C-alpha cells in the first residue's frame, strides 16, 4: 500500500534463508484481578483484545513479517501491547516487547513539532524564508519554513540522487553531515516553486533540522531531548549518532511477502537520515508519542489546528490521505509512518475515541510488493477493531 520512502534495495541484503513464521506472543497488558489474584479483563475489552490479536495474526498469515510489536491505547481501557514473531530468524530469538527500533520517517513528526514549538515561542515564523537561516538553498528566498514542514518546498529529495546512493550502497555506515546530505539536493533544479505542489522529500526535514540548530545553538538531538523526549518522559527514545542501539534490538530484514523468505539487511548510519529519519524508540514511547502528536500536547491548540489545516492531498511518498505540517492523515486518524532498510513503523491517533495505535515491524518488503508498508497494513487492521467498538 505504501511507497518506500527510504533507501532499501536487494543489493544491500545478505542472504539469511527462509522463515515460515507463526506469531509468537510475548506479553500483553490490560485488566485487573479478582479476589483470588487471577488476572481479569472486562468482557468488552477482552473481546477487543481478541480482535487485536486476530488482526495481527491475519497480517502475519498474509505477509509473513519476521517480527512485530503492536500496541493499542483506548481511553478508559488498559493499554494492549504484544510482541509477535522473531527478533532474529537464524537464532530463533523471540521478539522482545522492550526492543529498540529505528523509527525512520516518524522522526519527521518530531522534527516538525520542535519547529512548531519554536514558532510558538516566537523564535521562528511559519513563513520565514529558509534562506534567512541557511545559505545556498535553491529558491531559498521563496521557500517558507512551513513549506519544508509540509513537503511543499519543491526541493529535490537528496536520498534519491545517484551521487548519494552510490556512496550509501558502498558503505551504509558512512557518517554524513546534514550539509553533505542537502548538497545533493541543492545540485538539482527544483521541479516546482514552493507551495505549488506537494512532493515528499527527505531534504525538507533535514533542512528544517539545520534551521533548528542555527536558531537554538544546539545539536538537533540535544534540542529534541530537551524539548520533547524529556518533557514527555520518553526514556527509550534517542537521536543516535551510530547504528548501534540499546539492546534488545531486532535484526532488520527484507522479506518476500509471498513466500516468507527473509534476507537480513545491513545496519545504516542514522546520520544518512538526520532530521528526516534518525530517531530510535520503543513501543511504549511510540504509543506516548502518537498520543502527544495527535492531541497536540506540546503545542497550543491554535497552532495544532494550523498544523492540520495546512494539510494537502498527497501525490507521492507514503500513502496518507493528506499531509499537514509533519503529520499525516489516514481516514480520521492523524500521525506518522516510517519505512526503510529493514524497519517499518506507524503511530496514529483517533480523536473521536481518544485512541492511539503504534506498530513496529522488523522488515521491509522485497520483490513485486516492495512498495508495501506492513506497519500501515497492521495499523489499518487494528484501527478497524478500534472503530468497530
* Helical segment count: 10
Query: What proportion of the residues form beta strands (DSSP E)?
Result: 15-25%
Radius of gyration: 20 Å
What is the CATH C-level name of the domain at 10-105 and 221-388? Alpha Beta
* Termini Cα gap: 25 Å
Per the CATH scheme, the topology name of the domain at 10-105 and 221-388 is Beta-lactamase
The CATH homologous superfamily of the domain at 10-105 and 221-388: DD-peptidase/beta-lactamase superfamily
Reading side by side through the largest sheet, how are the strands ordered? 6-5-4-16-15-14-13-12-11
Gross geometry: globular
Under the CATH scheme, the architecture of the domain at 10-105 and 221-388 is 3-Layer(aba) Sandwich
Mind sketching the topology for me?
Layout: E1 14-18, E2 32-33, E3 39-40, H1 43-63, E4 67-74, E5 80-88, E6 93-94, E7 101-102, H2 107-120, H3 145-149, H4 162-170, H5 178-186, H6 202-216, H7 220-229, E8 253-255, E9 261-264, E10 280-281, H8 283-295, H9 301-309, E11 312-313, E12 322-323, E13 328-330, E14 333-340, E15 343-350, E16 355-361, E17 363-365, H10 374-388
Parallel strand pairs: 8-17
Antiparallel strand pairs: 1-9, 2-3, 4-5, 4-16, 5-6, 7-10, 8-9, 11-12, 12-13, 13-14, 14-15, 15-16
Amino acid at each position: 500500500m505504501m511507497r518506500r520512502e527510504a533507501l532499501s534495495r536487494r543489493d544491500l541484503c545478505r542472504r539469511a534463508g527462509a522463515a515460515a513464521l507463526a506469531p509468537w506472543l510475548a506479553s500483553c497488558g490490560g485488566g485487573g484481578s479478582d479476589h483470588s489474584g487471577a488476572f481479569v479483563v472486562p468482557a468488552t475489552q477482552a473481546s477487543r483484545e481478541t480482535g487485536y490479536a486476530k488482526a495481527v495474526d491475519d497480517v502475519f498469515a498474509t505477509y509473513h513479517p519476521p517480527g512485530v510489536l503492536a500496541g493499542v491505547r483506548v481511553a478508559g481501557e488498559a493499554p494492549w501491547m504484544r510482541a509477535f514473531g522473531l527478533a532474529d530468524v537464524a537464532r530463533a530469538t523471540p521478539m522482545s516487547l522492550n526492543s529498540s527500533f529505528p523509527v525512520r520517517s516518524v522522526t519527521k513528526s518530531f522534527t516538525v513539532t520542535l519547529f512548531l514549538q519554536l514558532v510558538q515561542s516566537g523564535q521562528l515564523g511559519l513563513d520565514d524564508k529558509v534562506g534567512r537561516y541557511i545559505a545556498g538553498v535553491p529558491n531559498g528566498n521563496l521557500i517558507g519554513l512551513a513549506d519544508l514542514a509540509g513537503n511543499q518546498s519543491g526541493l529535490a529529495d537528496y536520498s534519491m540522487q545517484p551521487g548519494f546512493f552510490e556512496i550509501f550502497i558502498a558503505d551504509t555506515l558512512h557518517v554524513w553531515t546534514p550539509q553533505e546530505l542537502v548538497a545533493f539536493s541543492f545540485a538539482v533544479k527544483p521541479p516546482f516553486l514552493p507551495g505549488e505542489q506537494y512532493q515528499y522529500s527527505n531534504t525538507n526535514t533535514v533542512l528544517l533540522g539545520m534551521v533548528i540548530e542555527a536558531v537554538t545553538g544546539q545539536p538537533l538531538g540535544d534540542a529534541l531531548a530537551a524539548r520533547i523526549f524529556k518533557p514527555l518522559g520518553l526514556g527509550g527514545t534517542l537521536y543516535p549518532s551510530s547504528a548501534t542501539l540499546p539492546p534488545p534490538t531486532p535484526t532488520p530484514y527484507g522479506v518476500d511477502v509471498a513466500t516468507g523468505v527473509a534476507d537480513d539487511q545491513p545496519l545504516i548510519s542514522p546520520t544518512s537520515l538526520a532530521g528526516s529519519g534518525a530517531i530510535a524508540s520503543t513501543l511504549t514511547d511510540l504509543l506516548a508519542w502518537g498520543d502527544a502528536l495527535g492531541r497536540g500536547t506540546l503545542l497550543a491548540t491554535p497552532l495544532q489546528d494550523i498544523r492540520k489545516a495546512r494539510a494537502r492531498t498527497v501525490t507521492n511518498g507514503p500513502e496518507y490521505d493528506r499531509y499537514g505540517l509533519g503529520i499525516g492523515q489516514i481516514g480520521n486518524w492523524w500521525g506518522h509512518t516510517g519505512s526503510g532498510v529493514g524497519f517499518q513503523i506507524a503511530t496514529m491517533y483517533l480523536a473521536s475515541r481518544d485512541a492511539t495505535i503504534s506498530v513496529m515491524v522488523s522488515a521491509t518488503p522485497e520483490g513485486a510488493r516492495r512498495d508495501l508498508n506492513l506497519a500501515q497494513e497492521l495499523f489499518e487492521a487494528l484501527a478497524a477493531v478500534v472503530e468497530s467498538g
